[in-house]
């Protein structure tokens, strides 16, 4: 465990020395050149964004893409530091987490909406929508809300709870509500589209459940239950989930880290609102996740039916999901450790304390994306250690 702590500390220090600024997976449109060429064409914007995310080497410096702080990355670093503080009680870890929470407040879009909210630091053209830089969306906002809620539970500072409740106001009032059936609720990913993304609603349901646990409110409980009811309704016969409803609305099918997101959210939900039916779905989902989205050597698969690339985010998510699942199924902590060992062997630069992006059958993308690679793995290692320590 001491070795993992050293790795996590040195990896966080690598990020801190760079002021947590780096490149993002989908930041192609931060290139002045690519933006000038494509700004009026959704097709070109999409081609540049997804093309650059798949390029075998990092050509962002050549395209003039600037390193920036990713709000979701900052939230992940906050949770990593708070985990280390819980483990060690070293005040420096807590103070650095509080510093990053202050940075997040500075870039919140609260003045334009019902509550605190955040978006990515780059324009993003997806198959379903275009989101300008920093325009808030549900995923980044939930990630930040989770960070403030964790900070509150550790420190007891009411200001952090106030931010978490402000986040809930944005999630409940500003996102579009999409009709999905009686007794169920589905919120949009962004402010404009009707894209039904399953893991997004799982995120929101889990966040509202945990917020209700510390600050009980009927609106939190009712929305959480209605969203989770819809998420559960979308499971396959194997207790897996496609990315969207309908499945053909996205090129993503049943992939690694989004499946982990859903499983984590269901677990967090039934730990607040006890539900044996949902717990049984979660247990079956874990079996599918282990058998279909990781190899026998514990490498993360890209999709349930596609091996490569082995993505650092998938590795991190597996560590997180199986670590958390061990609270109910202790034997899964070993699975988390095996995924961590595979990651350190295959996607880690021990000399520079940084994590690589992806590995294919013949090629490893040996560059680091600050949020996608470094933040996720720092959080994953810290989460594994936190849960392992409690078991010991």
What does this structure look like?
This protein has 392 residues and is mainly alpha-helical. It has one domain: Glycosyltransferase (Alpha/alpha barrel), CATH 1.50.10.10. The protein contains 14 helices and 13 strands. A 3-stranded antiparallel β-sheet has the order 9-12-13. The protein has a two-stranded antiparallel ribbon with strand order 1-2. A two-stranded antiparallel ribbon has the order 3-4. A hairpin with a 7-residue loop joins strand 5 and strand 6. Helix 2 packs antiparallel against helix 3 (42-54) and helix 5 (91-106) runs antiparallel to helix 6 (138-155). It is globular, with a radius of gyration of 19 Å. The N and C termini lie close together (11 Å).
CATH class: Mainly Alpha
Which regions are unreliable across 5 or more consecutive residues at pLDDT < 50? none
Give the number of DSSP strands. Answer: 13
Give the CATH architecture: Alpha/alpha barrel
- Helix fraction, binned, reads 55-70%
| Main sheet attributes: strand count, strand direction, barrel closure | 3 strands, antiparallel
CATH topology: Glycosyltransferase
Helix and strand content put the structural class at mainly alpha
What is the averaged pLDDT score? 96
What is the element string, with H for helices and E for strands?
A: HEHHEHHEEHHEEEHHEHHEHHEEEEH
